[in-house]
């Protein structure tokens, strides 16, 4: 893309996915200037809708990425692995899949946390986006790092089923209907009943008993915060909620602090909204946060009386709209504005 103040030509790969639809909605609503918008999918997903009044979805295999200045990858990691690097030779590529998150030579960016990581991206290049839980956690931790230095983070996550895409939503809906009808649950796609249940794993579990989601959350949060040695302990579970990840965080700082100062920093943090207990009892919940896609909400902020220099708090964020789509479009806004 040349350094001119012209709207970019945009392509969305995985346009029929939950995240792809949310990205398109933000673009159509005016969050990004757009000269043209190509909606793309792999062949097996071409029958999906990208939303009401959306243009037809094309086959990604037949698309010429030289016709785009900005490309979002929103669904299959295999598709991003196949096409993202080539597309990045002539365009900005924002990869929301896990295909490139582990590459040290690819910037991993949450717009509210480490936008400076985009400084080395010129008029084209590849950017990886973290997982939704990582975005939520890092967004809340970033302002608190200035309070007393981060020493240790213990977190339990409560992942919504939409983290597994449409299959997760369909699985919860089907299991719920079946059980309320006196039938056996299908147990798909999680391999166990999800309706009226809590699953103590998210993703595959390795020989040490650690899930891939738990490892990703540790690695991605460290990278986003620029804290490679930060001690982070994670337990990730799946809950029967359609949208909105929850995280219970127990944070220990290196120096003493005042609770009022911690709350003040959270109130000022980029992308954060503090839930005042006087006005929001008992605290933020997925049902309300799913309707507020621009913020990571934090509440139940209190001193941990069992440890020195420690703080407890609760985070809720819409995993699809805020942590994935909003982050993707915000990264694109930073890149586009660089050349204006």
Concise synopsis of the structure shown:
This protein has 340 residues and is of the alpha/beta class. 29% of the residues lie in helices and 21% in strands. It has 2 domains: 137 residues, Rossmann fold (3-Layer(aba) Sandwich); 186 residues, Dihydrodipicolinate Reductase, domain 2 (2-Layer Sandwich).
CATH homologous superfamily label of the largest domain: Dihydrodipicolinate Reductase, domain 2
Query: Which bin fits the share of residues in helices?
Result: 25-40%
**Rounded average pLDDT:** 93
Structural class: alpha/beta
Strand order of the biggest β-sheet: 3-2-1-4-5-7-6
- Judging from the principal axes of the Cα atoms, what is the shape? globular
* Proportion of residues in β-strands: 15-25%
CATH fold group of the largest domain: Dihydrodipicolinate Reductase, domain 2
Note down, in words, how this protein is organized:
The chain is of the alpha/beta class and 340 residues long. The protein folds into two domains: 9-130 and 324-338, Rossmann fold, CATH 3.40.50.720; 134-319, Dihydrodipicolinate Reductase, domain 2 (2-Layer Sandwich). Helix content is 29%, strand content 21%. The chain is built from eight helices and 13 strands. The chain has helices at 18-28, 77-87, 132-148, 166-180, 212-225, 259-268, 286-289, 321-338, and strands spanning 9-13, 36-41, 58-59, 70-73, 92-95, 107-108, 125-128, 150-159, 231-238, 245-253, 272-274, 296-303, 310-317. Helix 1 crosses helix 8 (321-338), helix 3 (132-148) crosses helix 6 and helix 3 (132-148) packs across helix 8 (321-338). It starts with 8 loop residues before the first strand and ends with a helix.
């Amino acid at each position: 893309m040349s350094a001119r103040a012209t709207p970019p030509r945009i392509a969305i790969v995985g346009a029929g996915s939950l995240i792809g639809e949310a990205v398109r909605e933000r673009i159509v609503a005016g969050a990004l200037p757009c000269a043209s918008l190509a909606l793309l999918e792999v062949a097996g997903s071409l029958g999906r809708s990208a939303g009401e009044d959306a243009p037809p979805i094309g086959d990604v295999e037949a698309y010429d990425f030289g016709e785009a200045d900005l490309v979002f990858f929103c669904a299959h990691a295999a598709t991003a692995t196949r096409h993202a690097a080539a597309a990045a030779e002539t365009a900005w590529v924002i990869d929301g899949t896990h295909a490139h998150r582990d590459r040290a030579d690819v910037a991993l960016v949450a717009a509210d946390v480490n936008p400076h990581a985009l400084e080395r991206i010129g008029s084209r290049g590849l950017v990886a986006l973290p997982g939704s839980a990582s975005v939520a956690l890092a967004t809340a931790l970033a302002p608190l790092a200035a309070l007393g230095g981060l020493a240790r983070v213990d977190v339990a996550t409560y992942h919504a089923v939409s983290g597994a895409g449409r299959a997760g939503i369909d699985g919860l809906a089907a299991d719920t209907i079946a059980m309320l009808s006196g039938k056996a649950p299908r147990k798909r796609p999680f391999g166990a009943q999800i309706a009226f249940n809590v699953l103590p794993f998210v993703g595959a579990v390795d020989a040490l008993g650690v899930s891939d989601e738990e490892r990703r959350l540790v690695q991605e949060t460290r990278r986003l915060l620029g804290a490679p040695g930060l001690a982070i302990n994670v337990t990730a579970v799946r809950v029967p909620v359609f949208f909105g990840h929850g995280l219970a965080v127990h944070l220990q700082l290196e120096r003493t602090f005042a609770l009022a100062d911690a709350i003040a920093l959270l109130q000022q943090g980029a992308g954060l909204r503090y839930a005042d207990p006087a006005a929001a009892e008992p605290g933020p919940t997925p049902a309300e946060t799913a309707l507020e896609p621009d913020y990571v909400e934090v509440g139940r902020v209190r001193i941990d009386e069992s440890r020195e220099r420690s703080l407890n708090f609760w985070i809720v964020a819409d995993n699809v709209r805020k942590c994935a789509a909003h982050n993707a479009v915000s990264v694109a806004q930073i890149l586009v504005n660089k050349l204006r």
